[in-house]
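Dear Dr. H.,

I hope your travels went smoothly. While you were away I took the liberty of generating a structure for the chain from your last submission, since the lab meeting agenda had it listed for discussion. I wanted you to have the full record in hand beforehand rather than looking at slides cold. The sequence, exactly as received, is reproduced here:
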Amino acid sequence: LSVLCNIEYFALSTPLTVLRPIDDLTEVDYSLNSLPAVFQPFIDLDLKGIVYPAGNYTNPPYVAAPFTLPDQSDSMLYLAFSEYFFQTSSFAYYTTGAFNITITEETCSYFNMSTEIFGSIIPEVAEYSITPYPVMLKLMATETPIVSLEQDSFTVEIQGSMEVFAVLPDSTTQSLFTMNIAANTSIAPNIFDQKLMGSLCLNR
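The corresponding predicted structure, in token form, is as follows:
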């Protein structure tokens, strides 16, 4: 929307690289791919929509496929985001390590697990830790999450690993075990009370 608000942007006679930070980790390049196509009922803007790690403008390993908007005219503004936009976003956040998360009892108020809980599932943990200790989880994506657009939703496939540590009384940690994770989720976007929301479903 900010692109549409910059009047001087429409006055450009040649395409210009336009970068804007999304957050501290990523930037988006929404430069014009070509000059605006002006028709009697509308203006068509073809923007790049490439997301980069902040300060790193190496092209991501994806190819943008062409697509068209549905032939509708009952709204003032139409925005379309391609699969390529989400693919580059996923790649940028993966490159910056945004999918690497450490969960501790201090950082998550809902987190209340201990070696006793894991020991009831994995006997080796119970043998190692007779005294219950708090645990710390380290989650890491091992590959770039794959984003695929569907008819009314999009799916995200994630390959990762989780390492579980016991937090000892002297604040040091002891690795207990590591497990690989493969997850496939569906996200269906909806608009509720003028806000874009998403419902998440774990497929497998």
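Two observations you may find useful: The first helix runs from residue 2 to 5. The CA atoms of residues 105 and 112 lie 6 Å apart.

With kind regards,
E. W.
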